[in-house]
Amino acid sequence: MGFVLGCDYNYEQWSPDVWREDMALMREAGVGLVAVNVFGWSEIEPRPGEYDFSALDEIVGLLHDSGIRLNLGTGTASPPPWLTRRHPDALPVTADGTTRFPGGRQAWCPSSPVFREHALRLVEQVAVRYGQHPALELWHVSNELGCHNALCYCEASAAAFRVWLTRRYGTVEALNKAWGTAFWSQRYADFDEVQPPRLALSVRNPAQLVDFQRFSSDALLDHYRAEAAVLRRHSTTKITTNFMVTAHIRNQDYWSWAADMDVIANDHYLDHRLPDPVAELSFAADLTRGLAGGRPWMLMETSTGAVNWQPYNLAKEPGQLVRNSLTHVARGADAICFFQWRASAQGAEKFHSAIVPHAGVDSAVWREVLELSETLDKIGEVAGSTVEADTALVFSWESWWATETEARPSQDLRYLDQVHAAYRALRELGVTTDIIAPGSDLSGYRAVVVPCLHMVSDQEAAAVTDYVESGGRAVITFYSGIVDPDDRVRLGGYPGAFRELLGVVSEEFAPLLPGQEVPLATGGQATLWTERLRLTTAKPELAYANGTPAVTRNAFGAGEAWYVSTNLAAPDLRALFERALTAQEAARPEHQDLWKRATDAQTNGERAPDVQNDGDRAARGHSDLWKRASELRDGQLATEVVRRGAYLFVVNHGDVDIEYAVAGHELVTGQAAIGSVLVPAGAVRVVREES
Predict the structure, then answer these.
(1) Which of 45, 227, 301, 460 is catalytic?
(2) In this prediction, what percent of the chain has a pLDDT beyond 70?
(3) For the range 410-416, what are the long-range contacts, defined as Cβ-Cβ under 8 Å and sequence gap of 24 or more?
(4) CATH 3.90.25.10 matches 391-586
(5) Which of 189, 435, 579, 632 is exposed most, by the fewest CB atoms within 10 A?
(6) C-alpha 151 chain-centroid distance
(7) Contacts of 382 (CB under 8 A, 6+ apart)
(8) Are 394 and 463 in contact (CB under 8 A)?
(9) What are the tens digits of pLDDT across the range 411-468?
(10) Catalytic residue among 45, 137, 144, 428
């Protein structure tokens, strides 16, 4: 079986003599899968109805002769200039009513009939020509669908939106009820009166905004299905497209897309605009595995070094290419593919890194790719295995959309920030987490975390309630359970759908101003958000300095549910999760901030707090916090440990060597791990554990 190392190859940017050189280099690097024809439309159809496959034929032949499999694009990601010149109505229109023109990529409206017609005509030509080719491994529909053109407000989109609404609601009366159009005299007499939520003089209808997000996600999925249907008429090869499970793309509800993919594939690049890019890498990998139903998946694109589209495009440090790649592998990837093979000499992505950089193969990047290839071969027996996780985190694109509509209690409250904070706390506690859709079966999990699930259906809320009642353990954070799928507030007090489960009632949100803090009884500070809780059946677990409850615990059936009603600092959230998810009794107040003292001491180069000799049992129970705190460097996790099947991945993100206690056979070095394994700074070790 083994792992696959792959890349994108934009052969059209290079001359035929470079093609032949590249084939030899690909074989040297162990490249086994190459994506071609991703942006090939203008090359193979230079004029309407006039096709030239000569160059693509040659590349396909060269790859096949080199023993390299094809990840063959349909070529429809960006239309050629002639299409939008002849049909300018196929161009996308933004919310302010202005047209976006060619010159970049994805200059097309997902609902445009004329674009669909021409795109499917091209797909038919490609499918007929290569559908039975012996080198074909995978069909690659379009590319990063919706990266730039997910939301289009043109007249074609308006018409398609009305059709979508008619199918969803059936009658205009049902639409009016769902959108609450009694407010501000928005009541519709007919579906023909409905427009996309273009920019208005005031805030727009939030239910309409959420429905437009749903429609737009479905419109792109419909385009994928249309291309896939053409491919299936001429080929039995698996079909997919590359998702963008990442911090800056939010417009596709991939839970609704996943079942249409024969293979789940994701593009991921480190985002240095985030406070902890590596933690987000792990989150994205776990979410991609969730979309794959726990099965192995493929990393369709990542970078060897810097990208070109962030404000500051940072190069990777020595060893980071291998370390980042193996972190994806640890979390379920069976294929690691890079954009791109050879760094472009021209164009918008000329400063995007590649396997073969501008400096050529006499470069550190090339040597590190060779190291990765060799390592993937050494650990090949891991491929096909699955990741073990006993904790789940509920994630919802619909809640993301609903949380961030225009009129909300605090503009500083951002859904993904809250999800990332919860995930990071779990990761830093060494908890491997499955990321799942609302309403998923929770019965196999020891604990479930529900961060900021603002929009939730009755059935989705019942899944959490039933799980706890049957003996499960849940942690729910603020702004959860507030609205139903029509964005209608659940009356009776917050947190709405979870009020009975949590045993609390909040009568009013009390968000904080930027920079404002509220002291906690433990000496920490709460930020961003507070609520005035009234306890019904819950018990207080953490209070503000004035005694008002901030975190509560409620026994419910055979289980218990915790409510975090404020925004806690990372050390406090970690300590709380450790207690909540392991059923620890509350430590005395003087020890509740032990993690903070440990991390502060480590950061300042001071001695660990002396808890081994402390007479208090609660403090001794937290003595391992110093160990985990010492594994943080500059506030980021230094040692990441993930179990995939019978294999333990130990990823050392830090700058010092570590010893990790494990017994078995280490695959990277080929040596026995007798009681522990040495993991050098910046390295990864993979241990086949003893049974």
Answers:
(1) 301
(2) 92
(3) 410/511, 410/512, 410/528, 410/529, 412/511, 412/514, 412/528, 413/452, 413/479, 413/511, 413/528, 413/529, 415/452, 415/454, 416/247, 416/250
(4) no
(5) 189
(6) 20
(7) 3, 329, 644, 645, 647, 667, 686
(8) no
(9) 999 999 999 999 999 999 999 999 999 999 999 999 999 999 999 999 999 999 999 9
(10) 144
- 65 in Cβ contact with 133 (< 8 Å): no
C-alpha to C-alpha distance for 627 and 428, rounded to whole angstroms: 12
Apex 487 CA angle, 485 and 491, nearest 5: 100
CA–centroid distance for 333 within its chain = 14
Rounded to whole angstroms, how far apart are CA atoms 145 and 260? Answer: 14
Cross-strand pairs, 640: 651
Tens-digit pLDDT profile for residues 479-488: 999 999 999 9
Task: Locate 320 and state its tokens.
Answer: 């980071």
Annotated active-site residue 301? The verdict is yes
Is 404 in the active site?
Answer: no
Amino acid at 464: V
Question: What average pLDDT does the segment 520-526 reach?
Answer: 95
- Segment 654-683 mean pLDDT: 96
State mean pLDDT over 599-620.
Answer: 36
Average pLDDT over residues 135-139: 98
Average pLDDT taken over every residue of the chain: 93
Distance from the Cα of residue 379 to its chain's centroid: 25
Q: Over the range 323-362, which residues count as b (16 or more CB within 10 Å of their CB) and which as e?
A: bbbbbbbbbbbbbbbbbbbbbbeeeebeebbbbbbeeebe
Q: Which residues contact 354 (CB under 8 A, 6 or more apart)?
A: 304, 338, 339, 340, 341, 342, 343, 344, 365
Question: What are the backbone dihedrals phi and psi of residue 243, each rounded to the nearest 5 degrees, phi first?
Answer: -70, 165
Alpha carbon of 459 to those of 438, 585, 595, 678: distances in Å? 9, 32, 37, 48
For residue 632, the model assigns a pLDDT of 61
Cα 370 to Cα 97: distance, rounded to the nearest angstrom: 49
Q: Which residue has the higher pLDDT, 566 or 621?
A: 566
The angle that helices 320-330 and 364-378 make with each other, rounded to 10 degrees, is: 30
Q: For residue 634, what pLDDT is reported? A: 60
Q: Where in the chain is the domain with CATH 3.20.20.80?
A: 1-31+241-384
Query: What dotted CATH number matches 633-689?
Result: 2.60.40.1180
In the chain, CATH 3.40.50.880 covers 391-586
- Identify the CATH number of the domain defined by range 1-31+241-384: 3.20.20.80
Which of 111-125, 236-250, 568-582, 622-636 bottoms out in mean pLDDT, i.e. has the lowest? 622-636
**Which stretch of DSSP H or E encloses residue 28?**
helix 16-29
